[in-house]
Amino acid sequence: MSALQILWFVLIGILFAGFFFLEGFDFGVGMAVKTLAKDDHERDALIGSIGPNWDANEVWLITAGGAMFAAMPIWYAGLFSGFYLPLFLILIALIFRGVSFEFRAMAKFNKAKNIWEWATAIGSFVAPFLFGMIFTALVKGMPVDANFNIRGHFFDFVNLFSIVGGVAVVLMSYIHGLNFIRLKVDGDIRYRAAKVAKVLYPVLLAGEVVFAILLFIYTDFFQNKPVITVILLAVIVLATVVSYIATLKDKEILSFIATGINLVALVTLLFVGLFPRVIVANNPAHSVLIKDASSSPYTLTIMTWIVVSILPIVLAYQIWSYYVFRKRLTVGQAGGSH
User: Fold this and answer.
1) InterPro entries of this UniProt entry (predicted)?
2) Contact 18/61 with Cβ under 8 angstroms?
3) pLDDT at 202
4) Among 42, 268, 297, 328, which has the highest number of CB atoms less than 10 A from its own CB?
5) How far apart are CA 102 and CA 318, in angstroms?
6) What is the DSSP letter of 181?
């Protein structure tokens, strides 16, 4: 296994971590449109808070998929064929969620507006839930044949561990979104977001304990990498505790950063547990390894130079975009379209 192969495995992990940090609060805000907002003015403010950046945040996912396709095509082929149905449902959820912002803004009747608001909320729930299920099923182990094809059945995808993983990602994203609302929206909803978050933190902590137990039962993380696994689980729990305390003390920036670290630490845990594999098979002999899944050294070299050239520009643009739209929105003065 070469340094370039390891580098691209790490880069793909970073792209997924960036996606969950940024799109995680978009998902949370989307769910809050129907679970937290009480009227059209509040819903306008919530959608307006993510309006300028949600589509740019999704580019991290597209880039992760593109990097996987180019750098590790066997991983891409195995993942996208083996998990075709849940990934297709994620695509549908993201499409409906994306168009819902525009169609809601153009809706002339309350009934139509309500339909698109539900599309926003349901799409924002389904996508992180299915992502959580896919990643937990991936590290648990799947039936893989000698040609690296996943031959999974229903309960290989849907089981206690994958459901807990899906719920955990949804809850993390929702709380992350509530903390973003506290940062970006002014009005009564800002304080209701804090109130709801305070109730949900103990639930999340309990869920993290359950997730850690199931991780021990269903994966080989503790057997193969006990120290780093325990450290990353501790980081996840500690970040949740810090965010909880920061919310109780009304420290909005710290609570938001801590929930973001929570999601990044979870992605890191899953990628560290995967290494040096990209797909875990029930039969260890059929697990797909990084060295077997990667493109040629020439391809990886060219891709690395492209990333070095373009990535700083893309990051600078996205940082500039967040700076331009840094102003807090006031309920009653925010538009619902991006």
Assistant:
1) Cyt-d_oxidase_su2
2) no
3) 96
4) 42
5) 22
6) H
Q: What secondary structure does DSSP assign to 257-294, as a single string? A: HHHHHHHHHHHHHHHHHHTTEEE-BSSGGGPEEHHHH-
CA-CA-CA-CA torsion sign (249, 252, 255, 257): negative
| Structure token digits, residue 130 | 């299915």
Please give the structure tokens belonging to residue 131: 């992502």
Task: Give the DSSP letter of residue 234.
Answer: H
Give the DSSP H or E segment for 186. Answer: strand 185-186
Q: Is the pTM of this model over 0.90?
A: yes
Average pLDDT of each block of 10 consecutive residues along the chain (338 residues)? 94 95 95 94 92 88 93 92 93 94 89 93 96 94 87 90 96 97 92 96 96 95 95 97 96 96 96 94 90 93 92 89 85 56
286-321 burial by CB neighbour count: b if 16+ within 10 A, else e? bbbbbebbbbeeeebeebeeebeeeeeeeeeebeee
| Alpha carbon distance, N-terminus to C-terminus of the chain | 45
Q: Exposed, middle or buried, 186 (CB in 10 Å: 0-12/13-18/19+)?
A: middle
DSSP at 328: P
Question: Which segments of 185-282 does DSSP mark as H helices, in order?
Answer: 188-218, 221-224, 226-248, 252-274
